[in-house]
Amino acid sequence: MHSTYSQRLQLLQQSDITPLLRGCLHGIERESLRVTGNGDLALTGHPAALGSTLTHASITTDYAEPLLEFITKAYPDSATTLDELEQIHRFTHSVLGEELLWSPSMPCRLPPEADIPIARYGDSTVGKFKYLYRLGLALRYGKTMQCIAGIHYNFSIPEQLWARLQQADGDAQSLQDYQSERYIAMTRNFRRYSWLLMYLFGASPAVDASFVRDIPGHKLERFDDETFYLPWATSLRMSDLGYQSNAQAGITPCYNNLQNYTDSLLKAVSTPYPGYVAMGTHDADGQWQQINTNILQIENEYYSTIRPKRITEGDERPVEALIKRGIQYVEARCVDINPFLPLGIDLEQARFMDSFLLYCALEDSPLLAGNDCPQIRQNFMDVVNRGREPGLQLVDNNGQPVALADWGQQLLDAIQPCAELLDRAYGTDGHVQSLAPLRARLDDASLTPSAQVLENMRQRNCSFAELALQLSREHADRLRSMPLDEDIRARYHQLATDSIAAQQAIEAEPQMDFDQYMEQWG
User: Fold this and answer.
1) Residue 511 and residue 205: Cα distance in Å, rounded?
2) Is the residue at 3 inside a domain?
3) How many domains in the chain?
């Protein structure tokens, strides 16, 4: 164990400091496709009973119109976060009628590309802008990719705790700068070790045949007539088949400081990309089809496994918020939806995520140089494509080959003190208890969610889509059998009503001409 890490652990064990860990905040964003009772993509508009996608804080859509996104508040206890996520699920199921929430990350049987509806946000100028952004995504990456779902796990450490760590480090810079520096260091460690999350929680080893119909030369194997897969894959969602972009390959910042990160994003949102320039901002009929022709239309287009974040104010852009006020929290974006869980994630996994992220924050995090970034990516891609392959070796931080299982156990050993600290702070044993089943997965790859998906397909003698539909129905039945208390149900109905009124109020205001808005925005 590195001495810096040991010293920080000792500091956090002090009786006046341990309780500060209860100020960590945890939020979850979970995406899920709406599908018909037969498992086809729902082509209906966003249900009015769920409110306005433009203004609802908890229930919106992501890229495709059927791709729901549920957003919890950030709470001091991840158990509370999961409680709210469950409430949102139960309310949504109560108003979906015959439609279902698709259980895994990879999509259902998809209609022809042209028939996949892009999410709409109303007739206001800002609503049209959000729609145009998604038009641009469809133009650049195709609509199929916009139907992939995932979980984003948001985590922050309280300023009071950063201040005590800064004091112990003898650091003289401002607290804002120290905090940003340490969040960037945390991000570097997350990138070093996130292959472990892919092994332990990856749950997308297979896809419906419709997903790869327009991908010539893909390397997937046939599972059956309707399914393609890779036998040892953990997360095809995070592979080259998922959210990847050739245009973005040159802007992968190595997170050595906040300015390096923000400069990379600023360059990407202002540098034209030849392929997008050739497409143009307008189609043959003179209609807008993408915001601009730059590598990124906006910062949110950057596909990364983790993002440093700061809540924006007013019309502020994300990168401006980071530059002005520093990093506030991190968003871990590489978490697959577990199709066997009604919410796609459970408290046991959330407790481990908390321990893992705290470890990334406290562990020494040398700057990345030389071949570090390509090697980190190679480890990650090896695990998403063949993480359960017997005897798979990765390359450790010292450039030495190491068996995935051995390195994984070493990491869990190093993470355990963080789990113990969190248990002490919260008065629980859930963080330490979450480690045992994960150790078992490292010992036996058949216990991983990705292996369980393939095993269930074999046992049930069904395709990926058929398994996912069966699980979707099971989850719907379970959640619908637990109706919400009337006051909670009424509150969600009111949130929906209020959000529709808020959108109508925005649309009732005088709207700037869209071309003028785009000129001013750019």
Assistant:
1) 46
2) no
3) 1
Domain that holds residue 325: 24-521
Encode 344-370 in three state secondary structure. CCCHHHHHHHHHHHHHHHHCCCCCCCC
Burial 325-362 (b: 16+ CB within 10 A, else e): ebbbbbbbbbbbbbbbbbbbbebbbbbbbbbbbbbbbb
278-304 burial, b at 16+ Cβ within 10 Å, e below that, comes to: ebebeeeeeebbbbbbbbbbbbebbbb
Token pair recorded at residue 89:
């699920």
- The tens-digit pLDDT sequence of the chain (522 residues) is 568 999 999 999 999 999 999 999 999 999 999 999 999 999 999 999 999 999 999 999 999 999 999 999 999 999 999 999 999 999 999 999 999 999 999 999 999 999 999 999 999 999 999 999 999 999 999 999 989 999 999 999 999 999 999 999 999 999 999 999 999 999 999 999 999 999 999 999 999 999 999 888 899 999 999 999 999 999 999 998 875 566 676 676 668 899 989 998 999 999 999 999 999 999 999 999 999 999 999 998 888 899 999 999 988 899 999 999 999 999 999 999 999 999 999 999 999 999 999 999 999 999 998 889 899 999 999 999 999 999 999 999 999 999 999 999 999 999 999 999 999 999 999 999 999 999 999 999 999 999 999 999 999 999 999 999 999 999 999 999 998 999 999 999 999 999 999 999 999 999 999 999 999 887
**Concatenated DSSP letters of 256-274:** SSHHHHHHHHHHHTTSB-H
357 belongs to a structural domain: yes
* Residues in Cβ contact with 305 at an 8 Å cutoff, skipping those fewer than 6 apart: 190, 191, 194, 238, 332, 333, 334, 380
Helix (H) or strand (E) holding 313: none
Residue 227, both tokens = 């399914």
Q: Which residue has the tokens 């998604």?
A: 134
Q: Alpha-carbon distance 465 to 447, whole Å? A: 21
Q: Do residues 107 and 144 touch, judged by C-beta distance below 8 A?
A: yes
Backbone angles phi, psi at 118, to 5 degrees: -80, 145
CATH number at residue 329: 3.30.590.20
Contact criterion met (CB below 8 Å) for 237 and 204: yes
Answer yes or no: is 18 within a domain.
Answer: no
Rounded to 10 degrees, the C-alpha dihedral 268/274/275/278 comes to 120
> Tokens in use for 102?
């698709």
Q: 412: closest CA among 233, 193, 203? A: 193
| pTM score over 0.85 | yes
Give the type of residue at 9.
L
- For residue 326, what are the CA distances in angstroms to 116, 179, 259, 332? 38, 8, 10, 18
Q: How far is CA 83 from the centre of its chain?
A: 19
Contact (CB, 8 A) for 422 and 358: yes
By the 8 A CB rule, do 226 and 208 touch? yes
Instruction: With respect to residue 7, please indicate whether it lies within any of the assigned structural domains.
Output: no
Environment class of 399 (CB within 10 Å of its CB; exposed 0-12, middle 13-18, buried 19+): exposed
